[in-house]
Amino acid sequence: MSRILIVGEDSLCCALGERLVASCLPGWRLAGPSIDTRGVTKLWPALPRYAQQAGRVQPVLCIADTDGQCAVDLLTRWLPTPAEKRMLLRLAVTEAESWVLADRDGAAQALAIPLNRLPHRPDDEPDPKRLLLTLAARSKKREIRDEVVSSEDRNKPGSGYNFHLSAFVRSSWDARRAAQISPSLARAMKRIEDLNAIA
């Protein structure tokens, strides 16, 4: 059975990576617990090491945000050359939250908000994290309002932000449904599926 290591710039990226592997690579299993680098500034210096591991041990899937920058430029700058085919760095446009929101039905249910408030083109949202916080602040569920959004600053995540979003992604986020309206997610899934032919 093939194995793959998941590396994310935060816990939400790790959860998305795990769900994408389950959706795109059925029959594969995780090489171990996902690695949360706790920030992109810690992720990118480690990429050469993960590329080495991908070449010698098992494929590696890294998930990070573009944060509004050009994904092609970031990939060119961050990925070591020559490229290692079993090393995938996939970038959510513009943040991982855009991929979360792309499953409109699932996100509406998880956040307990009306479906019509979810964006139809999440990759085009300039600040999907802020949008998600705005939506969560209007949730019908008190725990979403109180834990996902900070009580001190409604523009900042609360203590339960990563917990609730990661739990939703791991339990019921539908990658196939989300990919229908997120081109960056659809591209990521195609590349992940390609691992079947080269792993």
Number of strands: 5
Distance between the termini: 11 Å
Question: What would the average pLDDT be, to the nearest integer?
Answer: 95
According to CATH, the fold-level topology of the largest domain is Rossmann fold
Count of the domains: 2
Percentage of helical residues? Answer: 40-55%
Major sheet: size, sense and barrel closure? 5 strands, parallel
How many helices does DSSP assign?
A: 12
CATH top level class name of the largest domain: Alpha Beta
Describe what this molecule looks like in 3D:
This protein has 199 residues and is of the alpha/beta class. The protein folds into two domains: 3-95 and 177-198, Rossmann fold (3-Layer(aba) Sandwich); 98-164, no CATH class. Helices cover 49% and strands 11% of the residues. The chain has helices at residues 11-24, 40-43, 47-56, 71-78, 96-102, 104-111, 128-136, 142-147, 161-171, 175-179, 183-193, 195-198, and strands at residues 3-8, 29-30, 35-36, 60-65, 87-92. Strands 1, 2, 3, 4 and 5 form a five-stranded parallel sheet that branches. α1 runs parallel beside α9. It starts with a strand and ends with a helix. The model has no long low-confidence stretch (mean pLDDT 95).
